[in-house]
Specification:
This protein is mainly α. The protein is about 85% helix and about 0% strand. Helix 1 runs antiparallel to helix 2.
Length: about 80
């Protein structure tokens, strides 16, 4: 027995790649936003404890993490606009 897709099923199949692209973009943006910021925080805390300079390295590394996050997201958005 042959089975044919209804129009709504075909539309759902066409929408699936768009949804997957959106999810991949969201995941990509999320790691770009959080990994440098959290990494900078932990790196700053570690350096403060290593060099006994509390809170100076943390004060430097948290904004550095934010800056790296902003640059990574900017690069991602520029690449998406070119597509």
């Amino acid at each position: 027995m042959l089975w044919s897709l209804k129009t709504s099923d075909r539309t759902a199949e066409k929408a699936r790649p768009a949804i997957q692209l959106l999810l991949i973009t969201m995941i990509d943006t999320t790691w770009r936003a959080f990994v440098p910021t959290i990494g900078g925080t932990f790196l700053g805390i570690g350096l403060d404890h290593l060099f006994n300079t509390v809170p100076w390295w943390t004060v430097v590394m948290v904004p550095t993490g934010f800056l790296v996050s902003a640059i990574l997201i900017f690069i991602q958005l520029r690449a998406l606009r070119k597509k």
